[in-house]
Design goal:
The protein has a domain of about 230 residues. It is about 70% helix and about 0% strand. Helix 1 crosses helix 4, helix 5 crosses helix 7 and helix 8 runs antiparallel to helix 12. The longest helix is centred in the last third of the chain and has 36 residues.
Length: about 375
């Protein structure tokens, strides 16, 4: 069943590349040709029109496709290709991928006439849904009814998980420091060692005597610890970095917590965090602007793919029920759900990169460089 999904994605990618050419190629119109030197329009003394403006069908197609973002094409292509395969599986009552592709591509002209409008319409729908997909996966759900109860339960789960991580981190740091505490006592006074131990536990350190304060500020509790002990602490720090700075800002999903942590760290976010990127975009170099667009496009695409894959899992179960063996139907649905889970993990990774770019945009204003 995984082979079926892989082949479907390959087909989708091949279909996806076709309409994009229209966005980058401006086809000359009849009027543009007539404006060439020596044409009848020029000889008749007619006023030349502005160059570079396509007309007719090519202009209409270009205007439509220019409204569609690149991140919406891949989810739409996967959905269109997968649905075509599912309908063919149902018709043939078999999951034979070779037979399905042969039947679908039997008439290339009819395929293109049918597939291109479907692909464009599906892309329009996925693009319109992309922002809502991010918000839903962040955890901005209804506060009443069953969904509200689920939201509260998920927030409690993440709050407890964060508390457990903090406890494990404190124990791991104290263990790493305790192993080498004797070595620290050979180098520093007991007051400095006690302060370094509090530093390892991330607790408040009292003011030290002037003679010890300077040495304490130049030291770190990690200086003499074993690297294998510090690796455990670092791993727990990485997991805690996915949560907001304050526990009362916890969200019901991991993606929501990653993005909210970034929001809480923005000094210029203000009350309008959603408009932060638009306000700060012109103040950062072009390279940062490009990275912002790339990470945002990936976030949109992966979040949309989560819902597209989930819909395909449900559609495969409905369309193939009693058409093929039940374990084949179940295997195909599980494959779609597994792909949705992979896309959700990719969305979280993109959110981390997106947060890095937003924090870079939040730095003191610098003149943009080309």
């Amino acid at each position: 069943m995984l082979i079926t999904i892989i082949v479907a994605i390959v087909i989708a990618l091949s279909v996806r590349s076709r309409p994009l050419v229209v966005r980058s190629v401006r086809l000359p119109s009849f009027r543009a040709v007539m404006r060439q030197p020596g044409s009848m329009a020029t000889e008749a003394g007619k006023e030349p029109e502005a160059d570079g403006e396509p007309s007719g069908i090519s202009a209409f197609i270009a205007k439509v496709l220019n409204q569609l973002s690149l991140s919406a094409w891949l989810p739409a292509a996967i959905f269109a290709a997968a649905m075509a395969l599912l309908y063919q599986f149902r018709a043939s009552q078999s999951l034979d991928i070779g037979t399905a592709i042969t039947a679908i591509t039997g008439d290339p002209v009819a395929l293109l006439i049918l597939l291109i409008p479907v692909l464009v319409l599906t892309t329009m729908l996925t693009q319109a849904f992309s922002f809502s997909a991010i918000r839903i996966l962040e955890g901005y759900w209804l506060r009443r009814g069953p969904v509200g109860l689920l939201r509260s339960a998920r927030i409690r789960h993440h709050a407890k998980r964060r508390a457990r991580l903090e406890t494990r981190r404190r124990r791991a740091a104290l263990h790493a420091f305790g192993v080498v505490r004797v070595e620290f006592l050979r180098t520093y006074s007991s007051a400095i060692v006690d302060a370094l131990e509090l530093q390892a536990a991330e607790e408040d350190v009292p003011t030290l005597p002037a003679i010890d304060q300077a040495r304490y500020e130049s030291a770190s509790w990690r200086d003499m610890c074993h690297p294998w002990d510090l690796a455990n602490v670092d791993q727990l720090d990485i997991q805690l970095a996915d949560y907001p700075l304050l526990p009362n800002r916890t969200m019901p999903t991991k993606l929501g917590n990653v993005l909210r942590r970034t929001e809480d760290m923005l000094e210029h976010g203000g009350d309008d965090v959603q408009g932060f990127a638009m306000r700060r975009r012109s103040l950062v170099p072009a390279r940062v602007q490009t990275q912002h667009d790339q990470f945002r496009d990936r976030l949109d695409m992966y979040c949309t793919l989560v819902f597209v894959s989930t819909v395909l899992a449900v559609a495969s179960t409905i369309l193939l029920w009693n058409s093929v063996r039940w374990w084949e139907t179940a295997g195909l649905a599980v494959a779609f759900l597994a792909f949705a889970w992979v896309c959700y993990g990719s969305a979280i990774s993109s959110a981390r990169g997106y947060g890095v770019v937003l924090r870079r945009m939040d730095e003191p204003e610098t003149p943009p460089t080309p």
